[in-house]
Amino acid sequence: MRGAAVAAFVAALMLMEGAGSAAVAAPVSGRPEAATASGKTRTAPVEERPCPVTVPAGTTCGYLLVPERRDVPNSRTIKVGYAVHRAGGETPGQAGPQDADPVVYMSGGPGSASLQLTGLLTQMLPGRDVVVLEQRGGRYSEPRLSCPEIVEGIVDTLRTPGPTADETAAVVRRAGACQSRLESEHIDLRGYRTAEIAADVVDLRAALGYRRWYLFGVSYSTRPMLRAAALDPQGSRGVVLDSLLPPRARWYDESPGSLMATMAKLGLTNRFDAAVAALNAHPAAYDTRDPLTRKRLTVWLNGDDVATLLAEALHETDVIPIMPALVDGLAAGRTELLQPLVDQAGDGLTSHEWGLYYAVQCQDETPGNSFPGSAHPRLFTGVVDAAVCGAWGLPASRTEPDALTPDPAVTAVGADATIAGRSAVRDANTRGTGTRGTTTEARATGSAAARSAPVGSATTGNTATGNTTAAGRAAGRTTAGNATAGNTAARNTTAAGRAAGRTTAGNTAAGNTATRNAPAADTATRDTAARDTTAGSTTSEGRAAAASGVPILALGGRYDPTTPPEAAREAVSAVPGARFVEFAGVGHAVFLSSECGRRTIAAFLADPASATRPCDPGAAPYAMVRPGDLLLTSSVYRMLRSPVPLVIPAAFLLVAAVQLLMGLVSLLRRRGGGLSALAGLAGVVLGALSALSLSAVADPVVLAIGVPPALAWFGLLAVVCTVLSVIEAFRLTAGAARIVPALTGMAFVAWLYGWLLA
């Protein structure tokens, strides 16, 4: 009876602690996976709520109620946001055909939002349930671990031209303020790590009543998805890993080498080094907007900062083609060409929840890195993240098994790693060398902006300047994420996309396994066809993973410096039957920017055993723009920001059209007018040829840094038009109005050659 009374008393305390919620999550002691052991704990409850973003019809949203820390008895309950789009209103858990198994998706970052991608995912995967899960502590979860203080600190480092390693004090101070605020809100940051996020995935499957489902992760979220597959092999139908972040990668230490390997693939090693060296010697100033206040702001970027920004920009498939021309221009001193990326970078800094980002990174990622001060380039992400994690002092997580490495050597890195992190920061500050970029990821984007530079998407997913359409350089970078990050800025499929891929901001420029990247000699001058690899290793880890019966599809973008395809290919090579597909001409977060990538994922979900390709992953979406293919100019981008300069060409074309019409009328009436007709015809033909030339540009992002060289030759028609108009205007019988075409022609010629093409 005494035991029964104690049990009743404990149950009463549990109910009192959860009062006010629609349902109460039972506290679970032990490691996170203890909460999901079959038959040993009850299903985590859920709570319905209105969807916080626009979602397709047939979608419902809610919260998964789980302990903040599963390893602490009576840990408080937190809410993890999710959305479910049901195909055909089927009852979850019903037996159905193989291709009807649902899929659960999560964005990267860490810290990129996911729910904004529900519409894209349901279009991509029709006929099956789609579940979209937020990360605990994310934008659509409670509590939300946002840290605007850190964004303010990063912006402060950009106001001066000095290296970031000398200016981390502002970031550390603001990060400490954020940590203190979160802790004052009774948030235990130790509960926000990969193992807990993975356990949330497993709990959600049981809570929604699905027997099994596919797991879909991008960038950072590939880690919790792999962990969830190991925790719940019976409930895992298969795993899709887009832009795989290998579990054993030393992400920060390998990122400079990964970026250099990507530049080698593009044939840009020498020009990239020249651009970085020149800007380190003479930083460039850019006018942009503060990502928080939207007020005008002048930032200074040195060579290492620009390297970080370019790494985030490589997340975006439509930015990759201009990279050769852009880097060549930067090396030649055309620093104004970077303005579009600078403007998009701010999205990456707002695409992530930085409290969540650092809670995860400081526990799961930074302890395994040494942050060498001699790295080239010295990426902003590593400098800032080492400084913040050294200040936060969170304990290192232990190494956990997952679907790729089911039996890792479990080691507690602990305080030694934290101390090493602090030492690395002190060494960096002492040396006075470093990098400062526009994102901490990067993607994110989100990733990253930007993970990801303030670009995302990234962006990290995380992305994202997370990933950078408005969302997508979000998932990641997340978006993206994110953002460019979102989901991505001028370049991802959607704003949400930048956030997901950006991997947006915090993931910026981070990379994996630089030493495993392809040699420059083999890849510098060509974009080779993508490779589809099926692993066949017989290692003990591979056999253990294969025994779980969980099929794995990994996808990678050829030019992704954050999660290089070489690292992903090697990571899955130990798992028999696991497949890796590389996509030519693609960067981070393949599914956000590649239709072939989306079709490949859908085909795998329909039949994981089939190796049939639904499309050619070796076909790049856009052709590369090499130096000389463009007349480099930032004028078109400036016109997009302020259309006032368009008044001159618009007036010229209007006057030319009127001139042609009046000249033809005069000819029909036999009153002369031949010169006017020819002048007007030259102006109209110029407009038509220019429009055809610009419309032939398959990738509109190209126009942000240059125009087709043919425009310079077409401009000769403007000269002809102007000369004929001047002759007509100064004839003795000409009226005063004849001077108008001559003046507009001269103004247009000056505008074309003195401003647009200058």
From TrEMBL:
Pfam families linked to this entry: Abhydrolase_1 (PF00561), Abhydrolase_4 (PF08386)
Coiled coil: none
Residues that span the membrane, as ranges: 646-668, 675-698, 710-727, 739-756
Keywords: Membrane, Signal, Transmembrane, Transmembrane helix
rRNA-binding recorded as keyword: no
InterPro entries membership: AB_hydrolase_1 (IPR000073), AB_hydrolase_fold (IPR029058), Pept_S33_TAP-like_C (IPR013595)
Recorded superkingdom: Bacteria
Record bears the keyword tRNA-binding: no
Domain AB hydrolase-1: 102-254
Domain (Peptidase S33 tripeptidyl aminopeptidase-like C-terminal): residue spans on this chain: 541-608
Stretch list, region Disordered: 422-545
Signal peptide stretch: 1-22
Full protein name: AB hydrolase-1 domain-containing protein
